[in-house]
């Protein structure tokens, strides 16, 4: 299990994680839940490797991070305002 921390000022309404070598996103792994600002999401069933992460925030802005190394044993991955705004082109 890996923990994702939302340290940004925005709620995340959709969260997708796919292997970097795949071309489709699959299902929203967080379902109908909202990943609130300051909240965490525990993600399981992902082996260690490089992944792409797609997030859609409360304003329907899309943030995609490519080729992020994720590994459950590595602990927490954090999202902050700089990362979210940066991948949205601000």
Short description:
By secondary structure, the chain is mainly β. It has one helix spanning 81-87, and strands at residues 2-6, 12-19, 40-43, 49-57, 62-70, 76-79. The protein has 1 helix and 6 strands, in the order ββββββα.
What's the alpha carbon Rg, rounded to whole Å? 12 Å
What form results from the Cα inertia axes? globular
SSE sequence, one letter per element? EEEEEEH
Q: Work out the number of β strands.
A: 6
Mean pLDDT: 86
| Terminus-to-terminus distance | 32 Å
Strand order within the widest sheet?
Answer: 3-1-6
Low-confidence segments, ≥5 residues, pLDDT <50? none
Classify the helix fraction into a percent range.
under 10%
The proportion of strand residues reads 35-45%
Outline the biggest β-sheet. 3 strands, mixed
Tally of helical segments: 1
Helix/strand-derived category reads mainly beta
Structure description:
This protein has about 90 residues and is mainly beta. It has one helix and six strands, in the order ββββββα. The strands form two sheets. A three-stranded mixed β-sheet has the order 3-1-6. Strands 2-4-5 form a three-stranded antiparallel β-sheet. β4 (about 50-55) and β5 (about 60-70) form a beta hairpin. The mean pLDDT is about 85.
């Amino acid at each position: 299990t890996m923990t994702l921390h939302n340290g940004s000022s925005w709620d995340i309404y959709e969260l997708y994680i796919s292997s970097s070598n795949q071309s489709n996103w699959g299902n929203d792994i967080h379902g109908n839940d909202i990943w609130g600002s300051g909240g965490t999401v525990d993600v399981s069933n992902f082996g260690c490797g490089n992944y792409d992460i797609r997030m859609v925030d409360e304003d329907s802005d899309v943030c995609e991070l490519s080729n992020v190394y994720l590994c459950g044993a590595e602990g927490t991955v954090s999202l902050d305002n700089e990362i979210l705004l940066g991948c949205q082109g601000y």
